[in-house]
Every structure is written in structure tokens, then in C-alpha cells.
Amino acid sequence: MSLDRSTIWPYRDGERGPFYYSRDAHPTGVETERRLGELEGGHALLFASGAGATAALVFAFCEPGQTIAIAEGAYYGTTVTFGEFARWGLRYVEFDQTGPPPEGVDLVWLEAPSNPFLTMPDLEAAAAHPAGVVVDSTAATPVHLRPLEHGADFVLHSATKYLAGHDDVLLGAVVCKRTADAERLHEVRTRTGNVAAPDACYLLLRSLKTLEVRVRRQTDSAQELARRLSEHPSVQRVRYAGIGGLLSFDVADGDAARRVETSLHVIRNATSLGGVESNLEARSRWEPDRVPPGLLRLSVGLEPLEDLWADLDQALTQIEAK
Ligand code: PLP
Q1: How far is CA 70 from CA 76, 198, 311, in A?
Q2: Is the CB of residue 281 below 6 angstroms from any atom belonging to ligand 1?
Q3: Looking at ligand 1, which atom is closest to the CA of residue 74?
Q4: Residue range 178-235, pLDDT digits in tens
Q5: Alpha carbon nearest to ligand 1 atom 11, residue
Q6: Exposure of 277 by Cβ count < 10 A (0-12 exposed, 13-18 middle, 19+ buried)?
Q7: Among 128, 223, 239, 266, which residue's Cβ finds the most Cβ atoms within 10 Å?
Q8: What's the distance, CA 34 to chain centroid?
Q9: Inter-residue contact 279 to 296 (CB < 8 Å)
């Protein structure tokens, strides 16, 4: 697929073709959406970022006065985005996604697995609820889970993470089960201009070719690191869903967490997740109200496992040396 940066395409015999103005659609975006739709088994639409995809979904399908039930422990930024809609009368409640969603809510928002608490949703219980179901499947990826096959109506991705996978693209996606929902979302996207640029789509399309091999390797490494961390004397608790490259673990307190963060040589002390290079950070810098000060989130990359373990082990030893 070649990259087409045009914003306009000429009419033919005075009639518009499939592409006429890139705020509506462009060839690189459509091809990338086709591929992602295939991977998830639905109709994919790309947005400027994961937060942009969240805002578009809420704007397209929620009404003033409605309530969203969101998984507690899900990405804190999603509730921050919901908060921007409070002035339009949208409310949200949090619930334990390992059980059924609360009655009377208008939309159910799950995360598979939740970031950074790593719980997995009960998809069957959510599908039995009369409200529409969104699964933020950023951390699971379609390599491990295809939520539309388990009763979800929408799959959401921060494509910035595993899908694009190299920490160089900001993108979001919503994959719809129903064509009519995809049409509605496309309309909202065109009207609000919350669009993905061709260059970003091109990088995503290229990255999707290696998604499976990247995620399988990241999963293998994460499984082994989770096991070794759980046996480490300086680690109090490990959270890992058993799939994917994301995990979190607790050290004693904020000081210990800072010591680990600043002692790493191979793993970067940076935010975000899903890239080919490993990242670790204390999440309390972003969400101190709900995350223990000693919680470290680790996104496992493609570096040799023993290099990652040696780096973690020496950084954890710095706590004991204190
Ligand atoms: N959903 C999850 C699970 C995330 O981790 C993030 C970002 O960290 C987002 C959504 C938001 O995505 P973006 O940063 O691409 O806007």
C-alpha cells in the first residue's frame, strides 16, 4: 500500500468517488481499518488517539442524563475523559468487572485486562446486561482476545500501544459489531474532525504485520518475569492476567519505587506501554488517589529475557541496599 497524503481527490464526471476530502476518509486509513476490522471481526474506525476514540464513542452513543458503568481499576484517563462530559449530564459509576455490571446503567465499559490492576472482565455477565458493552482491549490485543465474539458491541484500542507498537504513533480505534454503529461513528468523526492522519495510519498498517509475533514474544517474557518477580524478596505482590506483555508489581513504598525507577539501565523509566522497548513507571505519579505508592507498572518489550531480568533484579537490589 502506498501512502497518499492528499486531502482532496477530484470528482469524476462531476460525481464524488469513495474519497473526496480526507476529513471524511482517505485510502491509507480505509486500508488500515479494513485490516484491523479483520483482526477483531468487526468494522474498525481510526481516531487521532485512544482518548479521541473514547470521546467519539461517548459523543456518538450516549445521551445527556445517562450513566456509564466502568470497570474499577481501568485506565484512569478514561474516567477523566468521561468527566469532560459531566457538564452535559453524563455520569459514571465504577464496578468490579470480574462480576456482573450494576443494573440500570446505559453503557458498560470494560477493560481487558485493566491498566494497571490487571483484572479481566466477566464478558459473559456483561453480555447478559441489556446495555451496550464496550471492551477496551488495548492490553489484550486481538492476538489474545476478540471481544466481539464474546458479546461486546464495541472494541476500543489505544492503538498507540501494542497495535502500533513502537512508541512513535498516537492513534485510537473503535471496532463496531454492527454496520449501522460504524456508520454513525464515521458520521460523528467526519463532523467533529477527530481523525487519524495518513502517515500515522501507514505506520499502524506496517506494525500490524508484526503484531502477532511481537505480542507472543512479549507474553512469553511477561509470564516468566511475573513468575520470577513473585519470588523476589523485595516484591510484595505481582498482578498479571496471564496474557499480554503488561504487568504490575508492588515494592514496599514510594521511596522503594523511586529507587527501582532510577536504577534501571535497560528498561526505560517512562510512561505508556505496548512498545518493542520495555517501560516501567510508578503509577502513583498519575493516579495517587487509587494506586499504592509502591506500585510499578512494567510493559515488557522485545529485549532478551535475561537482560530484562538482570536489570530488574539489580534495580530491586538497590532497595535492599538502602
Ligand atoms: N485505554 C488504555 C487502556 C490506555 O492505557 C490508554 C493510554 O494509556 C488509553 C486508552 C488512551 O489512549 P491514548 O493515549 O492513545 O489517547
Answers
A1: 10, 32, 35
A2: no
A3: 3
A4: 999 999 999 999 999 999 999 999 999 999 999 999 999 999 999 999 999 999 999 9
A5: 50
A6: middle
A7: 239
A8: 19
A9: no
